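Record M56 family metallopeptidase, 297 aa.
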Amino acid sequence: MSSALPVLALALTAILLTAVAPRILASARWLRRTPAATLALWQVVGAAGVLSALMTAPAAAIALATDGGTIPTIFNETTRVSLALVVATVMSGGMLLMLLFSAHQIGRDLRADRRAQRHVVDVVASQVDGQVRVIDHPGRSAYCLPGLRPRVVLTTGAVDALNEEELEAVIAHEHAHTGARHDLMLEFFTVLHRTVPRPLRSTAALREVRLLIELLADRHAARRVGPQPLGSALALMAGSRHPSAALGSGSNTEDLIARVQALPDHGRTHPSTLPLVLLTAVVGLTPWALLVWAFWA
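=>
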């Protein structure tokens, strides 16, 4: 049975990292103090969970082919059809199909929506300054349309409501999104979220990732302009709306409170950063270590 242990370990790791870990991370609010390190951990946890599921079938095949392997069989010893191999293949194959389907569907829809939005913005914009477009609308709104040809969009209502420093903070926040391609990060998490079977998905985890991405952009803006103008801009832009395919500055009340509370942390490095980096490395290496174990078991 020892040759089956790596297979079981990979399957258990996949379940823990895709179903359990996101719920634990989403409830650990103190991780918001280090959005960059926390997002790196989130990404590695998600990738390692999917990778563990994809590696389960190869690990079972390796274990089955190992001399002296004692994995239980479905029929008899002559069939060489392993129960573990069948289950692992279904698990890995199902995860791969869902991953490819989710990536194709989400990527296609997002890029089509953003192309359409960029076209509309370019047509109706009353002012153009590099990537920045200002459109005539009394409501307060600021958002970006990321991609190879990004746009930062402001309404005249937002421009009129914000002073110079606050406006600079909002623009810096949106430029942080487009410059660091936070949209790809969010797309990655969304694909992983859709890949996980529906009963195991955590909506709270996806919401937390969205908040962390906003906190990461806030950190860039606070370091450029200062926390006070950013805090004022956040309050003035609270509740603003933007297209679903865009990344925007508006927040609901709960997220706004979290972003304001995080303002003092944007100017310093938190002591938990190094432990988080080490944990990220351990999680990322775990599926590969288990696959090596399967080969040598």
